[in-house]
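Checklist before submission:
- one chain only
- standard amino acids only
- sequence pasted in full

Submission:
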Amino acid sequence: MEAEEELKFESACRFVIKLGTLAHRYGPQALRLESYLSRVTISLGYKGIFSSTPTSISFTFMKKDDELWQKQHLVSMPGTGFDLAKLAKVGELVNEVEAGTVSLERATEILDEIDEMPPPYRNWMVAIAYALCGAGFAGFLQGSWWDILLAAVFSLVVFLMVTFSGHYLGRFADWTPFLCALVAGVLSAVTGFLVPGINVYLVTLSAIIYLIPGFFISVGVIELTTKHYISGLANLVNGLICLVLLFAGAWLGVTLTGVILPVHSAAAGSIGSGWIWVFAMLLAAGLCIAFQTPPCDLFWALVCCAIACVGIILGVNIQGNNMGNFLGTAMAMVFANVWSDRINRPTSNVILPAFVFMVSGSIGFRGLVAISAGSTALGLTEFMHMFVVAITLAIGLVVGNLIYKPKITL
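Returned file contents:
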């Protein structure tokens, strides 16, 4: 009997370890992943303590009647990505395990099958998503029609570079953000010479908007406020390093081109405020597809982004940008929690695109651009405001969770 119980305990530990390592790759926040693993372990009849960072996960298991004896396991992770379709599949599998319809042994095998399954959106669709993100962001900032068109085209170039960087750059793949921004900056500057009247920096920023680490910077600040210091600092530092690489590449591309060609960067032309909603939804659609949001959840993810946008506009009209970020995040979080509770799907499927929709990192990028142009005071103000945005997002998440208590999901 004791040997059988030990084998059952071992099987549960192996399942939770594989569950955690695979789910970590698909994009959940550290706090959400730790809470979820704890819930699953309790449902299997045991207790667990977990610690997740961008580069590792620590697992500690114990039997409820013997907390002095613990089984520990540490896994080194290559980093976090985004694949909401696989994240949803993992959530569905865990529901079946908790319901007793799938054995742990079979569930462990299914986890490998999930990891190997093809994404719902193929490469050509993700390429279109990059273009939608670029065009959507340029339009959301009310650039000119030329700015929007060029942002979409250059976003496709960035997609190709990101896609092939892992195959050809090898150990230099970490420099992908720098190289992408460099090429985008050169292309924007050359086009600024050939087609006077475009906003070179707006086009460059829009072309690399998918690479802007606003999500990781904001998550880092949020995790620091929840006392997840190691994960928070790691996300914050990694986000800032990526932001600096993007700025350095964009600045170098525009500057070097300006040595050869007279680059004329115009102020942002306006397409009219009536188009903002159209381009906001294009940006949201691009993010959903790029994150591999399951097709069955795509509509609801767009609804969540629209609710966030409504909250931003209402908050701005009430008391300014910070109120807009807070209200948009809180409203989106409440919707995501209600949706997850009613449909029993992972909250991340709808809240992650809406959260990235805030793109607080773009504010930091614009701050660095202003500093490089000699507007030091303005640049520092915008760069520091990036952290204010992250804090307002964190408060919005907390308030949203207080208004409607969330179910523990991925």
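Reviewer check: Strands lie at 46-53, 56-63, 66-76.
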